[in-house]
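Lecture 7 notes: from sequence to structure.

We start with a single chain of 96 residues. Read the sequence below before looking at the structure.
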Amino acid sequence: MKKLNKKENEVKDIIQTLKDFIELVDRRFTLLENKVGAVRIGVERAKEELRQQIEGLGMRIDDLSLHRAKYSDIEILQKQISDIRKRLETTGHLKK
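Now the structure, written as tokens:
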């Protein structure tokens, strides 16, 4: 009888140890899932910020190219005005 009780106690101890181990593993997985979730959120935020920066850069490039076209148009107009001024000066219609 004593041997049976001793065996039962050993089995109960083993079962309790296994339960404790399973709970510990479960807690570790929960912590790991939380960390992975936090990393995922951080990555998503970084991706969103990078996307916004790229969009902003694209808009800035568009803005610069638009202004550059305007500056080139101004240069053309300045050349045309200069040519007209030279003609008017040579014909005497415009005094220097």
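The radius of gyration is 41 Å. Keep this in mind for problem set 3.
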